[in-house]
Amino acid sequence: MPDPEPGGPWQRKVPPKPAGSSFGLVLWIALIGLVGFGIWRLSELFPGQVSSDGDRAYLIQAVAILAFLSSGLIFARRVNVGEVARNIAIWVGIAAVLLIGLSYRSEIEEVALRLRAELVPGYGLTAEPGVFVLTESANGHFYAMSDVSGVRIRFLVDTGATDTVLSPADAERLGIDVKTLDFSRVYGTANGLGRGAAVRLPHLSLGPIELNDVAVTVNEAEMDTSLLGMSFLRRLQSFEVRDRRLYLRWR
Q1: How far is 119 from 113, CA to CA, in rounded Å?
Q2: pLDDT tens across 24-74, in order?
Q3: Is residue 129 predicted with pLDDT exceeding 70?
Q4: Mean pLDDT, to the nearest integer, of 65-94?
Q5: What is the pLDDT, as a whole number, of residue 20?
Q6: What is the pTM of this model?
Q7: Within this chain, do residues 171 and 205 fall inside the same structural domain, yes or no?
Q8: Residues 198 and 81 occupy one common structural domain
Q9: Looking at the structure, do residues 116 and 234 belong to the same domain, yes or no?
Q10: 3-state secondary structure the chain
Q11: What is the rounded distance in angstroms from the CA atom of residue 123 to the CA atom of residue 151?
Q12: 224: containing domain
């Protein structure tokens, strides 16, 4: 029988089976353990911050997501030590940010609300109990983003308007059939006489301020924006303008 050809199929080396993933599993467990240790140390630095069931659930969820995202390490076989150290540092940093965000979420939410109030003046914030603050817009007016029976309506705060006035477009968004209204109410405006129809809104809220059975007027002519007038403001305890801010006190 002739000798097999050099390099023929009979002399091909069988490729070695890949090594098991035990190293990656150990590395993954070590990473989760390190993250757990970091969370424990941070909880000691910020005692009492994770006290409620909701806080614990949020933390467990964050750790579970972190474990899932890093589970690819289980299949690692050859790892660059420097790269591993860098990745571990990144994941530990992410865990630290999550815990700090959980610990100071109230403060972070307050900062976010303040930024929103400055960037989008129609969104106010509660400066102190019983006081809601709106920031003046670039054109010198105060706008208010309100919730009217589940529909968001943008009002221009107008202390010169006797009534709270809805534009026809906003009235239709609230499900009011404008065509069936009786526009028999005549009132004076900066542009002359206007005509409107009296309606009542079951609910109107502006931030924490909530009013029921609110009398408003639907304007017959189109308007750029609805007006939040004295019929709303009189139901508050007081209001004042100071330092580019409108302070609404309702209790």
Answers
A1: 10
A2: 666 667 767 776 776 666 665 555 555 556 666 666 776 676 666 556 555
A3: yes
A4: 63
A5: 44
A6: 0.54
A7: yes
A8: no
A9: yes
A10: CCCCCCCCHHHCCCCCCCCCCHHHHHHHHHHHHHHHHHHHHHHHHCCCCCCCHHHHHHHHHHHHHHHHHCHHHHHCCCCCHHHHHHHHHHHHHHHHHHHHHHHCHHHHHHHHHHHHHHHCCCCCEEEECCEEEEECCCCCCCEEEEEECCEEEEEEECCCCCCCEECHHHHHHCCCCHHHCCCCEEEEECCEEEEEEEEEEEEEEECCEEEEEEEEEEECCCCCCEEECHHHHCCCCEEEEECCEEEEECC
A11: 15
A12: 112-249
Cα(174)–Cα(178) distance, integer angstroms: 10
Residues 147 and 84 in one domain: no
Residue 121 and residue 214 in one domain:
yes
Model confidence over 149-198: pLDDT tens digits? 889 998 999 988 888 999 999 999 999 999 999 998 887 766 667 889 99
- Please state the domain count of the chain: 2
